[in-house]
Amino acid sequence: MSNVSAENRLASLDVFRGATIAAMILVNNPGSWSAAYGPLKHAAWHGWTFTDLVFPFFLWIVGVAIPLSIARRLAAGERRGDLFRHAIRRAIIIFALGFFLNSLPYLLDGSLFRDGLSAWLHSYLTTVRIPGVLQRIAVCYLVAIGIYLTAGLRAQIAWTVGLLLLYWALMMFVPVPGFGAGVLEKEGNLSQYIDNAVLNGPIIGTHVYRSAKIYDPEGLLSTLPAIASCMFGVLTGALVRSGLNRETKTAWIFTMGALLLWIGSIMDMFFPINKNIWTSSYTVFMAGMAATCFAVCYWLVDVQGWRKWSKPLSVYGMNAITVFVLAGVVGRVSLEIKVGGSPLKTWLFQNVFENIPDSKLASLSWALTYVLLLYLVAWAMYRKKWFVKF
Predict the structure, then answer these.
(1) What's the pLDDT band for 195 if we cut at 50, 70, 90?
(2) Phi, psi of 77 (to 5 degrees)
(3) Could you tell me the CA-to-CA distances from 141 to 88, 155, 308 in Å, in that order?
(4) In sequence order, what E strands does 23-109 have?
(5) Which of 68, 139, 296, 386 is buried deepest, with most CB atoms within 10 A?
(6) Could you tell me the pTM of the whole model?
(7) Per-residue CA distances from 244 to 77, 154, 248 (Å)
């Protein structure tokens, strides 16, 4: 943990990161999933909603931060090998935090004491989910920083395009046993097949997202285009730290965003936008959306200097991973603590928020309260100048 001030940071990136993590907490914690507003739920399969913006935005932000931090450290004389070793340690910690969140319910549900160590360990080792949001962030961050440290700008662009083309070719032309090639439905697509083959089995058990059973939205093969999402951020970060004036940078980021949105929309016609299997069209379209939204933020905060309105978001953004982990811990604990036979979350929602007549508004009110309470934690950390470095 660092207690130094956050001077010389790109203020707009903190604001954009804070807005993204707040949105992530909002959409991940409705009072009732069945009563959530449509935009606050993922698209059922093809297509996108507001919720589908959040994760690729965060990966894009991770990418933007790479040139900003690494270039400064290289200029200070640090060696590339040392920087990559530091990135490995950081990626391991972030991955471990994600795995800890997946493991937490097994530690809280009392099954260890109820069933005994042997039965508990068997259940845990054969059912714990391996992939996850933080796990994907860790892998994408590590690969992206490796590319940045070893490749020039043209090669970075080639890597980004190559990852998207490779994933498209694999998904469209590699046949899946029993289904054939080019299947993009929930059952029978190559990404689902690989997740099922690697993460599930009669001996190892089932290690995918519980609601999906046979595939995982943060699965193995779909990590390839997710790395490209991070690389789009890296390319934007290189532009931000270029010698162009800020007005010109803003114009170029806007232009890049609009172009990627257009290209992604065209790609959607033959490789549909889909968050669950992270299609190449989804990657490109969401990178365009992220660049466009960041350009607005950059213009307002860093070019025009309008920072007072954005302070709450900046506070969130300076400890984004910490807040995300805390949100996961609180959410899981609230489902395991029982009050009158019901999970604490259910009891609180039913006795406080369900007094609101509109069920969807009640669900949203719970989520907004969650965001506010976690903001208070982030604010306390900010006041004490605690900025957690993983």
Answers:
(1) very high
(2) 100, 5
(3) 9, 17, 31
(4) none
(5) 139
(6) 0.93
(7) 24, 19, 6
CB 52 within 8 A of CB 289: no
CA atoms of 70 and 77, how far apart (whole Å):
11
In this prediction, residue 209 carries a pLDDT of: 78
Q: Identify the H or E element spanning 205.
A: strand 205-206
Q: 217-247: per-residue pLDDT in tens?
A: 999 999 999 999 999 999 999 999 999 999 9
223-240 CB burial, b ≥16 within 10 A, e <16: bbbbbbbbbbbbbbbbbb
DSSP state, residue 33 = G
Query: What is the DSSP secondary structure assignment for residue 342, as one 8-state letter?
Result: E
Distance of alpha carbon 7 from alpha carbon 149, whole angstroms: 25
pLDDT at 112: 87
- Report d(CA 173, CA 75) in Å as an integer: 45
Both tokens assigned to 387:
């900025």
* Cβ atoms of residues 277 and 184 within 8 Å: yes
Unique residue bearing structure tokens 């046993």: 177
Q: Give whichever of 25-34, 142-151, 326-335 has the largest mean pLDDT.
A: 142-151
β-partners of residue 274 are 46
Give tens-digit pLDDT for 106-133: 998 888 889 899 999 999 899 899 999 9
As a whole number of angstroms, the distance between CA 327 and CA 322 comes to 9
Cβ neighbours, 10 Å, residue 114: 9
Rounded average pLDDT over 326-337:
90
Residue 350 has pLDDT above 70, yes or no: yes
**Residues 81, 87: Cα–Cα separation, whole Å:** 10
Structure tokens at 179: 């289904």
Contact 224, 166 (CB under 8 A): yes
Nearest to 27 by CA among 321, 370, 322, 350: 370
Over residues 296-318, the pLDDT tens digits come to 999 999 999 888 888 889 998 89
State the DSSP H helix or E strand holding residue 382, giving kind and residue range, or none if neither: helix 359-383
What length is written for the chain?
Answer: 390
